[in-house]
Amino acid sequence: MRLKLFQDSVMKTLCYFAAVMTVAVCLGIILYLVIKGFDQLSPDFIMTEPNPTFSQDNAGGILTPIVGTLLLTFIGTLLAFPWGLSSALYYTFYAKKGKLRDTLSTAIDILAGVPTIVIAIFGLAVFTNPFWGFLSSRVEGVEGISKAFGRSFWVAGITMGIMILPYIIKTCAEALKAVPPSYIEASYALGADKRQSLLRVVIPAAKNGIITSVILGMGRIVGDTAIVWLTLGGTLRMTGLQPWYSPENWPSTLQNTGSTLTSYIFYTSPAGEGNMPSVAFGASLVLIVIIIVLHIITDYISSLGKLRDEE
Amino acid sequence: MTLSNISIAVKNVDSWYGEKQVLKNINMEIEKKSITALIGPSACGKTTFLKSLNRINDLVKGFKISGIISVGGQDIYKDIKKASDLMFLRQKMGMVFQIPNPFPMSIYKNLALPFSEKNNLSSRKRIDEVVVKCLKDVHLYDEVKERLDASALDLSGGQQQRLCIARCLTITPEIILFDEPCSSLDPISTLKIEDLLRELKEQYTLVIVTHNLEQAKRIADRVGFFYQGELIEYSAKDKFFTRPRHELTQKYLAGKF
Asked: Are B88 and A191 an interchain contact pair (Cβ–Cβ within 8 Å)?
């Protein structure tokens, strides 16, 4: 009996420590970044463009990496959301049980498991095809070579969209499946067809879950490095027509290369290819803050849903 | 019943879920502008029968049916081939479910949505009129007029059920089917719904499945007793409760099963 009680308390203590360690790791990372990066943070750091240099004092800020991160998130989400939601609708409400549905399910699972660096290589392979030249730029003036450059905000954004597609499909399908059949029944009983029922009743009912899935997808884009590294080109600054921020130059900016927070960290940190640890830490802190904010929004939205259920 | 008085005519209907037969040779005529109550023990086929009338059972896998159900002279299984005709049939027949199922949106939108979708209409003024009228018809308007934009899920169960009835009225049906509409409600909400049903039968044909004998006694004009998939007895209410013909009906009314 005593042995049993002892085993019980050992078990409990082990689990407790495992849980505490998890929290400690998370807090440790955040604390470390705050200590190392907080000094860097200033309106100036956020609002100026980075400068490729060896001198830390002239390194500038992280304006274009932040904009780059936002651009990729925007393009990727814009592509993956309607695509993913439609696939999820097909999977949940149209596909009959059978080969096609199974194939779709397997494809989603495999795609979710493909490392992003592989997706990046695939993206590069596709978008260097001259046909897709309008998304980046064509390599011109080189005898015997007809290829597109294959690195730009368009290319990286689209590749990001493909990367998050399986997650969006899965989480949207779960949200759609959770809609009570009684809503759908009521809709049919009112003489609505399938399209009306899905658009007007099911999707609004699954709204919270769908929004959550999109935000989780955004989080993955914000945090990804491999796709940026291969398909956005290794430049710190925007390389389109300058100034990159004036509206008439936006098309050119999107067709050309730049950086995101993750690639900026890689190119400035000594752990990557740089020699400016303090700006790298500053950028890491900004990145983690973005991730935390996305997480808080997700939590808030799912708490809205819970309140409703308890009533 | 004279022919012109018949809203729904059912002839030799059998139905199955997969291999299991759930309705056996049902014959029944349902009168216009009256309340027909269907009673019987659990799993006797009464809900299946009700849900066959607007073909909402089509959504159930493995459901099969034979025989004739004619609504307004149209055989709803043989004559209706196109999806649009099926939608049209369902717009002629409202349905209220056992558990109130307002859509998870505002009270206003619950009524505006089916009306504007059916009529392809977006005139806010016309929609407002219909919403108010339907809410008044179910005596819900005074209780919710201050908060039409609040979520329908914040209403009480009884209010939700009346909202669901109002939602049916927005599509101006001729027939309304009720599947145990009061089984999840408290007694006071139940009485309110029953009063409402009595008013509604002035304009609509009502078919109601109920577990509650007393309810059938209070509101029905005709009563049908289902047992193990068969329609054992079907007659006017007074006759049904005072002089039931069939032994099984007598036993059921006496609470013997």
From this structure: yes
* CA dihedral (A243, A247, A253, A259) positive or negative: positive
Kindly identify which residue of chain A lies nearest to residue B156, measuring between CA atoms. Answer: A311
One domain, residues A145 and A34: no
Tens-level pLDDT at each residue, chain B (257 residues): 566 788 888 989 999 998 888 999 989 999 889 999 999 888 888 889 999 998 888 888 888 898 889 888 888 888 888 888 888 888 888 899 988 999 998 899 899 888 888 887 778 888 888 899 899 888 888 888 888 888 888 888 888 998 999 999 998 899 999 998 888 888 888 888 898 899 888 899 999 999 888 899 999 999 999 988 888 989 888 888 888 888 888 888 888 77
Strand order in the sheet with B35-39: B93-96, B175-179, B205-209, B35-39, B222-227, B230-236
* A147 and A243 assigned to the same domain: yes
Say whether both A168 and A274 belong to one domain. yes
* H runs (alpha helix) in chain A: 2-37, 43-47, 63-89, 99-113, 116-127, 153-177, 181-189, 194-196, 203-205, 207-223, 226-231, 250-255, 261-268, 277-310
* Cβ separation B101–A183 shorter than 8 A: yes
Domain region containing A212: 43-310
Pair A99, A186 in one domain: yes
Give the domain CATH number at A240. 1.10.3720.10
Q: How many C-beta atoms surround the C-beta of residue A237 within 10 A?
A: 19
Measure Cα distances from A46 to A286, B64, B102 in Å. Answer: 9, 67, 49
Distance CA B179, CA B222 (A): 16
Number of structural domains, chain A? 2
- Please give the model's pTM, rounded to 2 decimal places: 0.81
C-alpha A248/C-alpha B213 separation (Å) is 76
The rounded Cα A295 to chain-centroid distance in angstroms is: 12
Residue numbers in B near A185 (CB within 8 A): 56, 59, 97, 101
For residues A257 and A154, the answer to whether their CB atoms sit within 8 Å is no
Residue B63 sits at the chain A interface (C-beta within 8 Å): no
Same domain, A14 and A104: no
Q: Read off φ and ψ for residue A206, nearest 5 degrees.
A: -95, 10
What does the CA dihedral A195, A201, A204, A209 come to, rounded to 10 degrees?
A: -90
- Answer yes or no: do A186 and B113 touch at CB < 8 A: no
Cβ contact B215:B29 at 8 Å: no
CB of A252 within 8 Å of a chain B CB? The answer is no
Identify whether residues A156 and A34 lie together within a single domain.
no
User: Tokens for A109?
Assistant: 């699972």
| Burial of B53: CB neighbours in 10 Å, binned 0-12, 13-18, 19+ | buried
- What is the DSSP secondary structure assignment for residue B1, as one 8-state letter? -
| Interchain proximity A182–B97, CB inside 8 Å | yes
Q: Are A12 and A74 part of one and the same domain?
A: no
Q: Are A104 and A12 within one domain?
A: no
